[in-house]
Write a structure and sequence with these properties.
By secondary structure, the protein is mainly alpha-helical. The chain is built from 5 helices and 3 strands. It has a domain of about 80 residues: Multidrug-efflux Transporter Regulator, Chain: A, Domain 2 (Orthogonal Bundle). Strands 1-3-2 form a 3-stranded antiparallel sheet. Strand 2 and strand 3 form a beta hairpin. The termini are far apart. The model has no long low-confidence stretch (mean pLDDT about 90). It binds a DNA duplex (9 and 8 nucleotides) through helix 2.
Length: about 140
Amino acid sequence: MDKQPASFSISDLAREFGITPRTIRFYEDQGLISPRREGRKRIFTRRDRTRLKLALRGKRLGFSLAEIGYLIGMYDTARDKNAQLTELLNGLGQRKAALVQQREDIEAVLQEVNAFELQCQELLSAREARKASDAADSSTANDAV
DNA sequence: ATTCTGACA
DNA sequence: TGTCAGGA
């Protein structure tokens, strides 16, 4: 009934996941997938397809291709589900920590920008005021002369 | 028509 | 990751 293909071409997967064949070949270079070869052509199995899906998910989660490779690597090696989950949890924790740090950095810089912006505005209004008084002084002087 | 490798104005 | 080349 479910006649799911036993293998796919590089273009099949590219289409399915909305990426280009170039990306798939690139991921292969990075060791994320290793489709078998039929001569030079790549033959992707359902397992390769699953790994590609996981890789794309990891990318969305912000993991580097190296991290994804490591995670996926033990995903089918270590059959210990708990170990896999623990690793994933560690990775997610680090990702989260990095994001929190970035948010703090951004907030800090934002405050500095706001402070500088304020200084500029004050400096500007101070000059406007001086210019106005200068004009007043000169007009007064002219009147005197 | 499809895919492959290598390279980078 | 894109893209172009030149071959299978």
